[in-house]
Write a structure and sequence with these properties.
Layout: H1 5-23, H2 26-33, H3 37-41, H4 47-58, H5 62-65, H6 72-88, H7 93-97, H8 105-120, H9 125-152, H10 175-181, H11 189-208
Helix pairs in contact: 1-2, 1-4, 6-8, 6-9, 6-11, 8-9, 9-11
Keywords: DNA-binding, Repressor, Transcription, Transcription regulation
Pfam family, one: TetR_N
Protein name: TetR family transcriptional regulator
Length: 213
């Protein structure tokens, strides 16, 4: 049976869910496909090339989830939400995407819609590019931390699974930190995410576009 590139990528994503990024090796992927490792190198010269295709596959549903009603802020907010969902859909999804620089159809379509919204709002090319990359880096960083916390969490009765690890014994020495420390374990990750997105999107458009429409 001929080994298709899309089959390799789908199997790699499934292996990622089971083994994580560290456990995703070309040898293990070949075993999962029932082939010898050299067969993979016909399609992917190295692991980074495979990760690039996996990153593009993570974006499969993002363009359809973006909202472009002529309002730049809504467009970017919908982009951020869709990207977060895409990265969370696979174990270590954000880590897979981070460090890939792909000019593939999904990535380009997402960039086209978001760029058009910002340019219509009056941003110049430099501000639009810097704004989009800042938003992407925020989403990646947020999800990397979100997924790392999930990996390390172990349920404990009546408390957050990371409460003990994240509670310094001498917190009273830092009263101002102590005043906000409880927010570190805030369970509403969606609210934290929206707060961060809003800090980037609204000021970006208001400051560099002059208006939000």
């Amino acid at each position: 049976m001929k080994l298709e590139k899309q089959t390799i990528v789908r199997t790699a994503l499934d292996l990622l869910d089971r083994a994580g990024l560290e456990g995703l090796t070309m040898r293990k992927l070949a075993d999962a496909l029932g082939v010898q490792a050299p067969a993979l190198y016909w399609h992917f010269p190295n692991k980074q090339a495979l990760l690039d295709d996996m990153a593009e596959a993570l974006l499969d549903n993002v363009p359809a989830q973006m909202v472009d009603r002529g309002d730049a802020a809504e467009t970017l907010e919908s982009l951020a939400i869709a990207l977060r969902q895409a990265f969370l859909s696979r174990r270590d999804g954000a880590r897979v995407y981070a460090g890939t620089f792909i000019a593939r159809p999904n990535a380009m379509l997402v960039g086209e819609v978001a760029s058009a919204a910002l340019l219509r709002a009056g941003l110049d090319g430099q501000s639009a590019f810097r704004g989009l990359t800042s938003l992407l880096y925020f989403v990646l960083g947020f999800v990397i931390e979100e997924q790392a916390l999930a990996e390390q969490s172990r349920p404990e009765a009546g408390q957050h699974p990371m409460a003990e690890k994240l509670m310094p014994p001498d917190l009273d020495r830092y009263p101002h930190v102590a005043a906000i420390w409880g927010q570190l374990l805030e369970p509403d990750q969606d609210a934290r995410f929206r707060f961060g997105v809003d800090l980037i999107v609204r000021p970006l458009i208001e400051k560099h576009g002059g208006h939000c429409r």
